[in-house]
């Protein structure tokens, strides 16, 4: 049995409920925040060993900017991907590719954070389109927190915030649809397709062990 078949026989990818992702997002993923979640998938080897979430981006400007306003409703973000340490080498790409096969008619965007020394190799391995770095920007953050000042109506409450330079991110896109639809979206893409970035990748500390969740039947 070759390695690909052994991974396929050992692991299953299934749609899961949002609440199963909560502990992973708040304690295991480096962002420590729960994003918008429209779709959630779990990687199982009988136990839940990874989660992937997709949601509507907070920025309507991004949704319009990818392929124009007429296609903005199709734009979603793969906003979290988190698995346990020490899984086999090809499991992550298997997880992503199997999750994407369960979706229809979407324009997905995802980012690899340069501040975390990420280059997005998982997106390169699963044939995403690379469109360069996000623009430079300044965020208003609640002091002592990684939350944006817009959370909890911080302005109205007179809370304290600080200006923080936003880290630039590698931007990747993936089109899900029939050949005609994908061809149309690629033609209407407003970003220039660029060569994949390279460099040393650095993993963040993902040693936290979530509560064991068994496979859902």
Gyration radius (Cα, Å) is: 18 Å
Contiguous runs where pLDDT drops below 50 for at least 5 residues: none
For the largest beta-sheet, the strand count, sense and barrel status come to: 7 strands, mixed
| Helix-strand pattern | HEHEEHEHEHEEEEH
* Measured distance between first and last alpha carbons: 26 Å
Instruction: Give the oligomer, counting copies of the same chain as homo and different chains as hetero.
Output: single chain
Can you count the beta strands?
9
Commentary on this structure:
The protein is an alpha+beta fold. Strand 4, helix 4 and strand 5 form a beta-alpha-beta unit. The longest helix is centred in the middle third of the chain and has 10 residues. It is globular, with a radius of gyration of 18 Å. The protein starts with a helix and ends in a 29-residue tail after the last helix. The model has no long low-confidence stretch (mean pLDDT 87).
